[in-house]
């Protein structure tokens, strides 16, 4: 996010004793293709440090995956969700943590082309997977047609659910469930918008799907 | 979430070995990861079975369908054979969860999913299913969404699956693989009523692995469908639901398969309704008379008395739609 301060210089993040903060960890791991050593302290992302301290040797695994076209090989605490891997380790904060329980859709990403809830996806399971997040949709400076449609239709207010809505909408269009506003509503129901922008979200998906 | 060991297996033999050692199988993970985060589930080892070759839908020789345990809900629902032969299965799947969850969750995992009872999910509440002997907070608590059929003093939680209701109606079989080889479990025996041991939910032995769900051949033509009644139109669990399949020939109902969801501690097969229909000619009065038996034996709780009537109306309406009368 643009309001975030500059990350401090990288420090080793090899276990609980080094006490990495979120910020230093991001700095350590945002190098493209870098190897990440993630001990128990940062495994759960927002895990309380006392819980992590109680399990200093939390099992970790190595996994290689491609995110928005860039290959990453990381070692993560087995508990790490794809959402936390993206947000806390790879500095891709577009996918949002709403409910962290698969109930809101704010974390929606594409895994091997299919929309999924990143919060319920364990990162260690993604060996060889190709992940696309909201950051990977635009073609350089040119927005994805659905991103442009969200702007054209003014399909958001606070914007928190928007990355998930857009990625989910890309999946919805790809799946071909855009034959009517009713069908779009049904197949987009996994994305909750607290501001209630549903009418415009449906219009945006219609526009990008070429129905309008 | 508690720490856990993670292991990935690529053949069923390795899976069974890991399962016998107490490893917990993970397929789509949509229930397991959620409950691990809530610390309701605390597996020491998670065994990733997503690489096993159990992801195909195949027609059986006799005209039934075998759906591999790792077929995702979305793939099963969209499969041409499932759509044409058993619309009730496709409909029940597409009325479940969200598109994202259906892309992750599998058929085997779906029938293994655990109840959505809020007290089960709340580790500070009494729950005999989560912690045997601790009591049941739902009995005296807020129980609007809970079961009215198949309950016990120990547990009143519903089974949340929709497709399991279709499988129960169609009398599917669950194929499982264990140390002693393959066996088939009739769907009616697969999910266990709570009784005094609500912590035991499936008729699986330690380490057994679900490989497929097989829907038997049924006489054609077969009209079928699923109706789900809930508090919002999409992305919500059932208050009541009905899975109906009817074989009507010569103007007479020859076969009737009916089960209900949202009302039972397990998917609730309705043999009395089925028996009332077989041999009769479709009519508005027949649907009503058959559906009147849908809630036989119901024992409502303080907040879910409405389910008794709602269940009968749900079954009647779906019989009318599938049966093709106005």
Automatic annotation (TrEMBL), chain A:
Sorted keywords for this record are: Iron, Metal-binding, Oxidoreductase
What InterPro entries does this protein map onto? 2Fe-2S-bd, 2Fe-2S-bd_dom_sf, 2Fe-2S_ferredoxin-like_sf, 2Fe-2S_ferredoxin-type, 2Fe2S_fd_BS, Aldehyde_Oxdr_Iron-Sulfur, Beta-grasp_dom_sf, TAT_signal
Give one Pfam family: Fer2_2
Check the record and name the CDD domains matching this protein: fer2 (cd00207)
The 2Fe-2S ferredoxin-type domain sits at 61-137
Tell me the protein's name. Answer: (2Fe-2S)-binding protein
Organism in which the protein naturally occurs: Streptomyces ochraceiscleroticus
Region Disordered: which residues?
1-23
Q: Which PROSITE patterns match?
A: 2FE2S_FER_1, 2FE2S_FER_2, TAT
Q: Does the keyword Metal-binding apply?
A: yes
UniProtKB/TrEMBL annotation, chain B:
List the InterPro entries. CO_DH_flav_C, CO_DH_flav_C_dom_sf, Diverse_Substr_Oxidored, FAD-bd_PCMH, FAD-bd_PCMH-like_sf, FAD-bd_PCMH_sub1, FAD-bd_PCMH_sub2, Mopterin_DH_FAD-bd
Cite the PROSITE patterns for this sequence.
Answer: FAD_PCMH
Q: Name one Pfam family in it.
A: FAD_binding_5
- Coiled-coil residues are none
Which top-level group of life is the source organism from? Bacteria
The keyword Electron transport is assigned to this record: no
- Which PANTHER family does the record match to this protein? OXIDOREDUCTASE, XANTHINE DEHYDROGENASE SUBUNIT C-RELATED
Q: What is this protein called?
A: FAD binding domain-containing protein
Naturally occurring in which organism (per UniProt) = Streptomyces ochraceiscleroticus
